Amino acid sequence: MSVMLLVTVLAAGCLIAPQQGDVAASMALLERVRTAASEGRFDSLEKLFTQSRYAASVRQIARDGAALRTLHVDAFPAPKGLEKFGDYWLIFHRHQGLEAEHDRIHPIVRTGDGLALGPEVPEDVVVPFEITHQNFDVVLRPERNSADFETTIDLKPTSGTGSVLMRMNDSYRVAGASYRGEEINAFLDEPIDKVILNPAKSELIRSGGVVILTNPGTGGKLTLRYSASIDFPGGDETTSDSMLLTSYWYPHIGRMPATSSATVRGPKDWLILTNGDVKSESVSGETKTVTFTNSVAIPYFHLVAGPYKMVAETTDRGRTFRAWHLNTTGTDRGKGDVESAKNAVAFFEDRYGKYPYNHYDIVDTPDYYGIECYSFTLLSPSISSWATSHEVGHTWFGGMVPNTYIKSIWNESLTQYIDSVVFRKNADRSLNNGYASRTAPVALADALLAHGPYGNVGYYRGAYVMKMLENEIGEAAMTKALSALVEQRRGKKTEWSDIARIFNQQWFFEQWVYGKQFPKLDITRAFSEAGPRGGFVTTVDIAQSGTPKPFRMKVAVVLTGRAGEKSQVVDLSNGSHTFYLESDSRPTRVSLDPFGYTLAAVPAPRLIGN
């Protein structure tokens, strides 16, 4: 639901923001919500919303009753400036995976029957501040299975006034905060009746996965001190064996991009990597200290550390490429991976702009599937051989041109197209899978989850649609537009609408990116006769149906006879078209080949009459 629609819903009819003094009633509602969640009762939970459909946001992250029981529920005062949604908000929270889900926030609103929960407050609700830089100071403590953090963010006002609403995974226990160099009062997971704010001072509220800075003034540096001891199967961990931090281990505003710097301390014999280039590295006693600088504004930050061994290394264009494994097995794979990374960096750089780092590393993560980290990648050993070049591509599309993953996974579409179709010539059959996805009842521009039920639409249909666009405008124009995208959208949160403006092919995006219903083609007539200048002329009538209005598209018409096949690409834009196709010999069959041109369904081959 859009922010504007949310405001309209809350302002309409019987929905009125609760007045001050509703603390007790809000706490009572919180307890009813907690009871419904702990019992795994969606039916009971739905009754606590102003409309039962608003509970769908919680169902999306819980999925079934058993998972509902794993959610924590807390309440907090609405950030100043956003009280129009309700003076108190509830948050359904748990540790969230990277680029996947997010905690759900619902305002408490007044109805004719008392207080209830309204529609979800969007994760990217407008906040009058942005984070321009993240500075991480991290101490890895494998002997304690934990890590300590002191993260300083630079807050810059954008427009309007109000508190700074941020999110951070609830697994991180906040100990305190300072703002503009002074310690500030912090309400850390306190009941709402205990949160009594000073209207004249900057204070911090932490509730579940929410962090709020009140009275931020004109901005400045906010420092949070926190720690974690986590071990999520297939996900983040702070164990004696390794450290893996990928999922919102830092405060963020709507996953917006920022530059970063980092100082990380850990065991002297461990590999330590985070985003950016290494600025310095030193060892004192049993502790290694590594500092990093990252001048690229990126949407996600990552850190990996452990007793890794370098199994392969190569250099190219003044950059170093390395592969790291937890043991020395798989050396040949490591060599192949660094070659893949080297070649991919050169390929993307030559077409879409300079690679911004002096290195690229491929790090094995046996219990973790994989993720791009812009200056390195984390990959399961089972996928590194084919996934390395794809993750390299995300340095440009998703990194330099940031994608928050809140609205869509457009960067997966573009990267899959460039890597799998242009670079690797469809060796992994991305185009075949893309055409097969045409019946999935979602649009490419929908808010798909990369590893959700329709995630492959974002990858494969996305690659296919980009190939269709290439066939419309030409490969040179395609490369030029993608290069312009990197140049014009660098460091700016980007969506499909921004990409459409770069390509200036709005009709194409309306049909194939924003649409989820595609035409069906039929051959309604086909006959062949002798041509006036020799040879034969075949008349083929093609009709399209299945959409409210005809689509504009290309398709290949293939004539088959004893002499072989002859193919001609034609343009469609009306409900029906007649084409006259010349050939040297008489064809006996006609078919339509959609591959790379359209997502329309095509008929079986048809015999040609005389």
What would you say this structure looks like, in words?
By secondary structure, the protein is an alpha+beta fold. It has 13 helices and 34 strands. The longest helix has 22 residues, at 331-352.
What fold name stands as the CATH topology of the largest domain?
Answer: Immunoglobulin-like
For CATH, the homologous superfamily of the largest domain is named as: tricorn interacting facor f3 domain
Instruction: Please name the CATH architecture of the largest domain.
Output: Sandwich
Rg result: 28 Å
Report the span from N to C terminus.
57 Å
CATH class of the largest domain: Mainly Beta
| Average pLDDT number | 94
Placed side by side, the strands forming the largest sheet appear as: 9-8-13-6-5-16-19-18
Q: If helices are DSSP runs of H or I spanning 4 or more residues, what is the number of helices? A: 13
Total strands: the figure is 34
Number of domains: 4
User: Which percent band covers the strand fraction?
Assistant: 25-35%
Low-confidence stretches: 1-20
- The amount of helix comes to 10-25%
Largest sheet: 8 strands, mixed
CA-based shape? globular
Structural class: alpha+beta
List keywords for this structure.
single chain; 610 residues; alpha+beta; Immunoglobulin-like; Neutral Protease, domain 2; 4 domains; 8-stranded mixed β-sheet; 5-stranded mixed β-sheet; 34 strands; 23% helix; globular
Task: Give a quick rundown of the structure.
By secondary structure, this protein is of the alpha+beta class. The protein folds into 4 domains: 3-117, no CATH class; 127-307, Immunoglobulin-like (Sandwich); 396-512, Neutral Protease Domain 2 (Neutral Protease, domain 2, Orthogonal Bundle), CATH 1.10.390; 520-607, Sandwich (Immunoglobulin-like), CATH 2.60.40. Helices cover 23% and strands 35% of the residues.
